[in-house]
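Re: [help] complex structure
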Amino acid sequence: GAGVSQSPSNKVTEKGKDVELRCDPISGHTALYWYRQRLGQGLEFLIYFQGNSAPDKSGLPSDRFSAERTGESVSTLTIQRTQQEDSAVYLCASSLENSNTEAFFGQGTRLTVV
Amino acid sequence: DQQVKQNSPSLSVQEGRISILNCDYTNSMFDYFLWYKKYPAEGPTFLISISSIKDKNEDGRFTVFLNKSAKHLSLHIVPSQPGDSAVYFCAATYRNSGNTPLVFGKGTRLSVIA
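Output below.
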């Protein structure tokens, strides 16, 4: 596709349930990032995939959060046993290898934990 | 510890005047800086960037200034237009190692009043 695609666009889940968020990056982009934005806050880094290198997981807030990426394509962010504080917009971005320049963002998934 | 700081959460400017958005950073290893613009319910979009080897980069109505000694950068928009009303995020990264996710500030909400 032309841009970064995220699904679902909105997700409401009950506290304690697991959720899976999906990101389709721009074709050819080897770098993929997950960020989240909680209400009134900035963009909080979660995890970064770059080609075949080990992912940078330093931003994951707890072991309930995990992410995978299949080759240089789709990535899924999984949150287990969701808590109300996990409510946020989860944003995925991708960029060209070694560019460290412009990262293109998807529209995000708005997660609401009730 | 916030490495990228945008100390003004909001800014209001009259149409046609200059908008100046400020950003400070603490990590002296950062060597590449970006500004992103975000409208409600959309992902952030890249606006302009600057490398640490420069002190100014201009693109149409948008100019970014970098003061390395002060660890400060600013985005100037002139003339400001109502369509510029959005949240502006400052971001920074460094290129010397493999995994370098963008570090974002909390954003400044710009309102351009007609």
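The two ends of chain B are 38 Å apart (CA to CA).
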